């Protein structure tokens, strides 16, 4: 009986959004043809024939593509949806042409004539959904994007087979209409919204007010963007996930409705109640369904709907009560506010709350939430399944459909990291789990544009029924496609990276860079790693050895810089350890030598090599923010938002360095001054024979950190110097020391 109920729940979602009219097929085919022209140019695009045919689907709701032709004929790409056709195109480019599509730049040299497809190659996805995004991605990566950048991302999504993704831009403009209609003043609304770089946490009820308000122009531009994003996503046959009301309200609601029943939640992220402690409506309060339905009705009126909505009531916040009856009522209130407006509503819930606070979310509490929504109407994202899956301890989410997600990255940090073995085997294990309700795979990073090998593998797994059989061979082919040519040293370098930085295992694996390089210095910094540093240094040597053959490849230059950055990060840890040991042994000369190399040689060299690539420039990062503005004052405000997120993440360093990046300019003017102040303080302590005072140092260094955030200094947005030459210069200076073990 249980298996029957599970099958019924999964069936609801298998059929959701499946099918569509002939007009939809024509529109989706046209969208893919336009993508081909953008990707390859109009000339090469003429060599491809694209069609969308719903009847091609192996089973209802399961995307399918078919490839044929090539050689003397046009390449035929057919798909059951636009997304399926785009994924088929990507498969042809990847496996037959040796091409590579990536955030950092694509390698699209087509062989002539185009290779023929033997017979007809047909592939069907094993699951209904391939999901993409995390609520936090909207702030860590997307916040300053214009339409041109969004278009490139949606193309990337289509090529990688993504058919379910968040579309949350512009919602504050809708909320503003609702709040005004309820009787709040414009001033009260302005006070409630956070600044743009922190909207993700305002949307989940964690924050309010911080680094706001939102300028009127923000709402106008975001509405425009959202319309274009939705139109483009729908043109491929993707299902956009719109936001819904989760229960959080501005404090000003208590002025308009004095009798309203609200709970003031606890603080979040080391913020005080000036910026956190949100107000949560009681589920039984009559205003709850009114606000929820007002918002959703206005949202649908503006944007239309595809019937899947996201809402997170208790993200990293402990509910007011652990009583199952309360948790069920709170869940029911959110769901019923959706169905009051859209009877076909499906709720997409981030399962992070169950993973983040396991001490609160026991079996009874989890069962209360999952059981409060009809089976098949709650779609759970098992957000961190590659490391800490929740489906295994909740009987497959009590029969509710779920998506196996790879979270991978926290804060949009730089740093080579992955758990490729766990990622490779995870989806199959979830599918084979007893009474599994898995309906898809997903990529849910907090930030993108890093560790592209991890996302290439995860996207491929969305179409595979079993794991990649040989990951070493897979990464070797990945490198050849990425650079446009096979090179033995480059392949060997990638195999070393696979067994080291990309081979993290166990629940402790988190893609959050905690290297001393990007943390506020102290004597208690953790330098432990899960891999052998020798593999990183040897991969660095091998990649440099292949430079004469591969240096014309933009992707190779990016990877060489990224690996050089990683090697310097390792060196910083080693010199820090030596400086700390020298301090503890009161050896001033050794402390000055190690500290001098770290702060006055190594970090400036890192900043210089980062400056050789536009993708690693603070100036480019900040220019994105400034370009979103309509006035100089607004540009300054957006830039400050961006600087806060990269560094202090709050007025007092509340979530200090969580979103750390290694960017030219940030290394020179933020990380380097901190390290110099720290090492000078240690040297003074040894010279004067007094203990180092961490508390006093923290107060002093905060002044440097805050000065960086408030600074108006502009940074170059154009690269300077040659990446290969600068990487080689660092290598020749430090690699021999590593080999000799002489620091």
Automatic annotation (TrEMBL):
Residues 30-116 form the Alpha-N-acetylglucosaminidase N-terminal domain. It catalyses: Hydrolysis of terminal non-reducing N-acetyl-D-glucosamine residues in N-acetyl-alpha-D-glucosaminides. It comes from Pan troglodytes. Residues 474-733 form the Alpha-N-acetylglucosaminidase C-terminal domain. InterPro entries: GH (IPR017853), Hex-like_dom2 (IPR029018), NAGLU (IPR007781), NAGLU_C (IPR024732), NAGLU_N (IPR024240), NAGLU_tim-barrel (IPR024733). Keywords: Glycoprotein, Glycosidase, Hydrolase, Signal. It is an enzyme of class 3 (hydrolase). PANTHER family: ALPHA-N-ACETYLGLUCOSAMINIDASE (PTHR12872:SF1). One of its GO terms (molecular function) is iron ion sequestering activity. One of its GO terms (biological process) is glycosaminoglycan metabolic process. Its EC number is 3.2.1.50. GO terms for cellular component: extracellular exosome; lysosomal lumen; membrane. The keyword Hydrolase applies. Residues 130-465 form the Alpha-N-acetylglucosaminidase tim-barrel domain. Residues 1-23 form the signal peptide. It holds the Pfam family NAGLU. This is Alpha-N-acetylglucosaminidase. The keyword Glycoprotein applies. Belongs to the glycosyl hydrolase 89 family.
């Amino acid at each position: 009986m249980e298996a029957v109920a599970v099958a019924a729940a999964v069936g609801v979602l298998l059929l959701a959004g499946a099918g569509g009219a002939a007009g939809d097929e024509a529109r989706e085919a046209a969208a893919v043809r336009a993508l081909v022209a953008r990707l390859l140019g109009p000339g090469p695009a003429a060599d491809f024939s694209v069609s969308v045919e719903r009847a091609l689907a192996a089973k209802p709701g399961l995307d399918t593509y078919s490839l044929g032709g090539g050689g003397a004929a046009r390449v035929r790409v057919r798909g059951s949806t636009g997304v399926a056709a785009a994924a088929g195109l990507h498969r042809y480019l990847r496996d037959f042409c040796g091409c590579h599509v990536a955030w950092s730049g694509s390698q699209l040299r087509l062989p002539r004539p185009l290779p023929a497809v033997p017979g007809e190659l047909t592939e069907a996805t094993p699951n209904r959904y391939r999901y993409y995004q995390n609520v936090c991605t909207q702030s860590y990566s997307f916040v300053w994007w214009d339409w041109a950048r969004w278009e490139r991302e949606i193309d990337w999504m289509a090529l990688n087979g993504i058919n379910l993704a968040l579309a949350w831009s512009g919602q504050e403009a809708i909320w503003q209409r609702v709040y005004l209609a309820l009787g709040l003043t414009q001033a009260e609304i302005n006070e409630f919204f956070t600044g743009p770089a922190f909207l993700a946490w305002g949307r989940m009820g964690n924050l309010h007010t911080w680094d706001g308000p939102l300028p009127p122009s923000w709402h106008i531009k975001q509405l425009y963007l959202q319309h274009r994003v939705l139109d483009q996503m729908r043109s491929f046959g993707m299902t956009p996930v719109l936001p819904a009301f989760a229960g959080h309200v501005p404090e000003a609601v208590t002025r308009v409705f004095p009798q309203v029943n609200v709970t003031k939640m606890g603080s979040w992220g080391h913020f005080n109640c000036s910026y956190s402690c949100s107000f949560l409506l009681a589920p039984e309060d009559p205003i709850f369904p009114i606000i929820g339905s007002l918002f959703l009705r206005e949202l649908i009126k503006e944007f239309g709907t595809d019937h899947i909505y996201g809402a997170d009531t208790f993200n990293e916040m402990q509910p007011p009560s652990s009583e199952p009856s309360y948790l069920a009522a709170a869940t029911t209130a959110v769901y019923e506010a959706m169905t009051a407006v859209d009877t076909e509503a499906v709720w997409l819930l981030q399962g992070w709350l169950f993973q983040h606070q396991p001490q609160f979310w026991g079996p009874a509490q989890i069962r209360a939430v999952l059981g409060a929504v009809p089976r098949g109407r709650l779609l759970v994202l098992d957000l961190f399944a590659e490391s800490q899956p929740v489906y295994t301890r909740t009987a497959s989410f009590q029969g509710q459909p779920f998506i196996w997600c790879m979270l991978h990255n926290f804060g949009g940090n730089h740093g080579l990291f992955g758990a490729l073995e766990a990622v490779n085997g995870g989806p199959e294990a979830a599918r084979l789990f007893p009474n599994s309700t898995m309906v898809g795979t997903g990529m849910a990073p907090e930030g993108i544009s890093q560790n592209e090998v991890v996302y290439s593998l995860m996207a491929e797994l969305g179409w595979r029924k079993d794991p990649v059989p040989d990951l070493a061979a897979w990464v070797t082919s990945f490198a050849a496609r990425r650079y446009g040519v096979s090179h033995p040293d480059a392949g060997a370098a990638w195999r070393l990276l696979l067994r080291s930085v990309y081979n993290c295992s166990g629940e402790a694996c988190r893609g959050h860079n905690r290297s001393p390089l990007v943390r506020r210095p102290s004597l208690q910094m953790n330098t432990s790693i899960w891999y052998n540093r020798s593999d990183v240094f040897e991969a660095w040597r091998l990649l440099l050895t292949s430079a004469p053959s591969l240096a014309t490849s933009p992707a190779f230059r990016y990877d060489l810089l990224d690996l050089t950055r990683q090697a310097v990060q390792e060196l910083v840890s080693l010199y820090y350890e030596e400086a700390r040991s020298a301090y503890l042994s009161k050896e001033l000369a050794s402390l000055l030598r190690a500290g001098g190399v770290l702060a006055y040689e190594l970090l400036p060299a890192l900043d210089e090599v980062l400056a050789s690539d536009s993708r690693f420039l603070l100036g480019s990062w900040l220019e994105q923010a400034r370009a979103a503005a309509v006035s100089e004052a607004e540009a300054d405000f957006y830039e400050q938002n961006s600087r806060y997120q990269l560094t202090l993440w709050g007025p007092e360093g509340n979530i200090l360095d969580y979103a750390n990046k290694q960017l030219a300019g940030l290394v020179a003017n933020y990380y380097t001054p901190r390290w110099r102040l720290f090492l000078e303080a240690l040297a003074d302590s040894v010279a004067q024979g007094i203990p180092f005072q961490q508390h006093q140092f923290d107060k002093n260094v905060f002044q440097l950190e805050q000065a960086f955030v408030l600074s108006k200094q502009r940074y170059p947005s154009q690269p300077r110097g040659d990446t290969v030459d600068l990487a080689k210069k660092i290598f020749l200076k430090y690699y021999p020391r590593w080999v000799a073990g002489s620091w």
